[in-house]
């Protein structure tokens, strides 16, 4: 009797809404095409000693499309550090790769679907270089993976941040206060930009645009003059301080530094400079929890089904990519080679400036004229 065809799947890196929807998409379509599905636990860690997996089927993935988190577990620490900082490659040890190869052999894995962000897909990239059959699925609330319009999880994080801004807006008005909201976004300000626009923020501070306190204060004072004696300021955790540097805790080894706290710094400085009441809310991991939005459920399901298609077609080393309205395939290498950051000519940035939202940098009208607006 021939052994069953098997596909592996794992979720790696920071969790986000939609991971379970991808798993379900893979399992439902794989089952229809005659595959068994092996789900590795705690990301890549489950591939090596002690090998840790569970067989996934229609029954144990039933009803998980709207569940946050991941039934397989995930980690952003361990033995599979393939990158340090933004883009410094770290070579995975040869013995580790051999162990993974042995797991593939023993469990008869035809291909592995790796669901992860930039760091996790950099591991998949090295697997591919060593001849391991992998398919990538772009996950991250930060939306900083290039070669795809959206990673799933981003829309859910923006929905969470926008809801928070909506709530802070009304209390800001009641008390005529300045409210600072710190959102996630390690290297890219997509969450801050989209939630800031959607929530009607007055100021958005992101890693890609250098800013200073004078300009932020000016915007708040300008609003005062317009009789809007309240302001909501959205700041990405990865925004650089005006004097340079990130607000982060310490990190050990190749682990990424834990960001957070810039909101408090902005808030204290504004309070001091404006002699006004300022409050700060750090949203943190709230943005990574809870059910996925409808958009993310749909995107994640499409990613799961199309990842399985790529596997059947033996298009290894490729990542599913959303190029509206199609799901296409791009090399994982290309997707992790460059971070997708907010650019000054981004349509969202331009629209925000046209509306008078400040990025804490030069005057909006000045920068729009430079971009050809009159
Ligand atoms: N098993 C592991 N061992 C060591 N590091 C890991 C492991 N799995 C993931 N990581 C690291 O975790 C970090 C986050 O992973 P990833 O990029 O996939 O997620 P993310 O959601 O984009 O989060 P972030 O924005 O924090 O990078 C990366 O630095 C990645 O290299
Ligand atoms: O789970 P941890 O280690 O706190 O990770 C936090 C990081 O993960 C992300 O949420 C991305 O998933 C970043 O925005 C953030 O810096
Ligand atoms: Mg990342």
From TrEMBL:
Site positions (Important for substrate specificity): 119
GO biological process: canonical glycolysis; fructose 1,6-bisphosphate metabolic process; fructose 6-phosphate metabolic process
Subcellular location per the Swiss-Prot or TrEMBL entry: Cytoplasm
Entry binding sites for substrate: 140-142, 177, 184-186, 237, 279, 285-288
Catalytic residues, chain numbering: 142 (proton acceptor)
Pathway: Carbohydrate degradation; glycolysis; D-glyceraldehyde 3-phosphate and glycerone phosphate from D-glucose: step 3/4
PROSITE patterns for this protein: PHOSPHOFRUCTOKINASE (PS00433)
Domain Phosphofructokinase: 6-310
GO molecular-function term, one example from the UniProt record: 6-phosphofructokinase activity
EC number(s) reported in the record: 2.7.1.11
Annotated protein name in UniProt: ATP-dependent 6-phosphofructokinase
Record organism: Planctomicrobium piriforme
Gene expressing this chain: pfkA
